[in-house]
Amino acid sequence: MLEGSAVDLYLETAIAAARAGGATLNARAGDLGRVRTKSNRLDMVTEADIASGVAVCSAIAERLEQARFVVEEPEVYDLAGVSRGSLHDADVWVIDPLDGTTSYVHGYPCYSVSVALLHAGEPVVGVVYNVPADELIAASVDGGVTLNGVRTACTGTGAIADALIITGFPYDRDGLLMQQLPVFSEVMRTVHGIRRDGSAAIDCCHVATGRADAFWEFGLQPWDTAAGIVALREAGAIITDHEGHDWTPETQHVVAGNPELHAELLELIKRVRER
Question: Is CB count within 10 Å lower at the N or C end of the chain?
Fold first, then answer.
């Protein structure tokens, strides 16, 4: 495990980097440049994504010359002059320079910059900057989680019938969506309400800050969740895959909530998937 002084340095670095990415996104709002797609027509990338990634990685590399990175947009490595890393390096920065690209493209005010440090495969520092709201969620192992400097925690809601749940929908509108919709339908019949904002990083932080009670989503990538995982754990939440296994960088299907609520939501998901 990293020493406390090192964690403090990394957290300060992550905060500066997330803010640098956010400033770039603000500067590029309304000037998206070329918009292209990746896996399908719904999976978009803008020039603002790339510019934010360069700003984030450059801010880290200026402070930590040996830093290695896993970034959602691969063009960033050469443009920022940084080293590509692996999720299982001793230390690696996992970056989503714009989580919520669809919202950004449409001018919908919910998107974020997500910056995490993984140490031996475990996230130890996580910062999510909700850019339109100017809210910065920062967390480190054994250091707690804060929202704009104020300590937060997940709720104590113990029954799914009393809960507000957050989810998202995958770009894969065939296989994964067909797995998601039956769960969505069953959860919707059970809970107080469901919210969907389009940024998994922000969704994780809504649970970590007590604004929602639990979160689940299928088909996520490590840069979507790594920073939020630190915030969730420090807030007292349990985070697993849809079968109850602990989160790892390879986990794509995520379930998170306080211990009681997590167990109930996980059981509901398992029950629906077994039908």
Answer: C
